[in-house]
């Protein structure tokens, strides 16, 4: 042990050279100065940074979804299918990755997974480099016909249909997110058990809280990055003639993926050098068994492990509760930027800023304070799981309050059934481009100058003014001639601040006991099985959470659409939503999922009476064979001893099994 201590601080590499399992390096490269990084704290930072960049990739993609839908003209349900594809590979091989990954050199396995995630970031950005930026002909000073400016031409015009790149572009995005899913499942199924094996279990809650907090910076960084990138046009060196507040604006969505990919590449490199285990850390039983197993033995072993997992009521209820929460929070999470854009008339850049840092900072505070509180006060299982139930109820109340916050709707003439009317039906207008204009009453908006019957335009004091508009309506609903200004009518809503405050408070409560769920998962299984538990339940998460929620929320969003983009006979993205319908469906669906989660959390609270020793060193199979009277951390027989007797046993066991954290 002393030689390991010296090598871990780089003092005497020669003494530790015989045990390369605890030395940092690769191949014949094991310098003395590198051994100071052979510690769980060092790995905690590296692993947290990789998780941060993983989360940033997903958040940046979420922040750019509405932009990608406009750029490549596809519906929200296609976005749901793209998100679902992240789970296709994990669904089939998650357990295999967890099983075999736990039996390999785990840090190098994680580093290899991050190579795949790095590649996925560049695949995400590849459609831009293949097809370039979109060019809008309506900003040209010279134009061939009035259709370019979405004006009423009073003559039939035919739309030019160029070769559409969207099929191949969407396919590349599909492929990129599948690679990301493969990297993610390998990272999460191996990284957390590896860290837990190398720390004292009294510190597990604190370490998990720190790791989750670092990783939670990822979504904040991703939303900040998308907010920054979307302020620039898709081609940063091209001026389209309008700004981010215009619905036609396509931000530089690809730039963030390139930045994240480069960062991930450099952060991933040091992970190759971490040892198989740290000095004083536990070597998994699977590593200590040197006998060769046939494939039949492997399959039999995996079947037995799965059987133990799926007949464990505490473990399964805890996982089902987490699955329901994932459905609700992830579904809400991916639509929140779009909701802010539509409901509160925010730009894509501002919507991402409000969706990310503003809300996530409080979640980070909640996780850290919750993890510190659990580590310091070490509440018993019944109190801990009861606290989860209370936080779920408070979170549901916050979503109900958010659902009641609304803004006054702008009058959009004709959008309930059709944009066309008797006045503009000869203008041959299209919904290819959303170019909103404000009518003379400063309240009514039209989808484009064409639908308002405008035939001319001019620039006045830097503003585009459309003239000779024959289809604008007065307060009595009669058509008359008038002028209209480019852009939305004035919009004032005080509900945005209340919405952000209430949602932030709800997510703070939701995250305050976020550490409890993985802690209960790790303690509700046999110590020798915990390296496989995250991989084993991975297919369950894919089947019941990551597959359904993108489809459910995508379909609900599309069902609220009033005006679709249509071009060359094909339906693209949605331009205008029924905001009340969208608001009720988004929040109502999330509330239903959280109610199911609360039910399973109550079941966890009931079964947790048999969960013992959340903060002790676990007893392995080998130790149980040597001492059959050892107390398991999860026992199906209720322990009737007093708390004092249990604490005395804990002290005795800790003295006999004490290791370096």
Verbal overview:
The protein has 24 helices and eight strands. The protein is of the alpha+beta class. It starts with a helix and ends with a helix. Residues 1-18, 137-148 and 628-661 have low confidence and may be disordered. Helix 13 (313-343) packs parallel to helix 21 and helix 21 runs antiparallel to helix 22 (579-607). The strands form two sheets. It has a six-stranded mixed sheet, with no helix packed on it.
Summary?
This protein is an alpha+beta fold and 661 residues long. Helix content is 56%, strand content 7%. Strands 1-3-2-6-5-4 form a six-stranded mixed sheet, with no helix packed on it. A two-stranded antiparallel ribbon has the order 7-8.
Fill in the keyword field for this structure.
661 residues; alpha+beta; 6-stranded mixed sheet; two-stranded antiparallel ribbon; 24 helices; elongated; disordered C terminus
Can you tell me the overall shape? Answer: elongated
Strand order of the largest sheet: 1-3-2-6-5-4
If you average the pLDDT, what whole number results?
Answer: 77
First-to-last CA distance: 13 Å
Largest sheet geometry: 6 strands, mixed
- Indicate the proportion of strand residues: 5-15%
Specify the helix fraction band: 55-70%
Rg estimate, integer Å? 29 Å
Helix/strand/pairing category = alpha+beta
> How many DSSP helices?
24
Number of strands: 8
Catalogue the unreliable spans: 1-18, 137-148, 628-661
